[in-house]
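Task: fold both queries, return C-alpha cells.
Query 1:
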Amino acid sequence: MKIRVQFYAQLRDLIGMRELDVDLAEGATVHDLLEKVYAQQPALRPYDKSILIGAAVEFVDLNYKLKPGDEIAIMPPVQGG
C-alpha cells in the first residue's frame, strides 16, 4: 500500500522535501513506516523520540495500523513561548 508522508517545520527544512510516498505491506504500522522513512532520510532519526505523528486529524502512536491512502504528518513537538 502507498502512504504519503508530509514533513513540517524544521523537519521539512532538514531534509529539503515537503512529502514522500512510501510503499508498505498491508497491516504495517507507523513504526514500520518510520523505519522506512529513516532508511531513506537518516537525518530524521535523531528526532525519533520527540516527533509527533498525525493521521488524518488526530495524533497517533507507533502502533497505529496504517490504511491504504493514509496521509501521515510528521512534525516536531509544538513549542510555545
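Query 1 returned. Query 2:
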Amino acid sequence: MPLITVHMYPGRTPAQKEAVVRGITEVMVREANAKPESVEILIMEVPREHWAMAGKLQTATPVGG
C-alpha cells in the first residue's frame, strides 16, 4: 500500500483537498500501477510559524512566496 504524506500550510478548502487527493491517487494508479483502494494519503497542515526555509520562519513570507 502506498502511503503519501503531503505537508502544506493550512487554508485550503475541503474541496481543494479532495481535488489534491483525487489527483495524487490518479497518478499513483497510472504511474505506479497501484489499486485506488490501496492508496492512502495523509494531509498534514503545518502552521506557517512552524515552518522555516533558509533560516527564516515563513510567518513573514506572503502566501505563494
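Both queries returned. Flag for query 2: The first strand starts at residue 3 and ends at 8.
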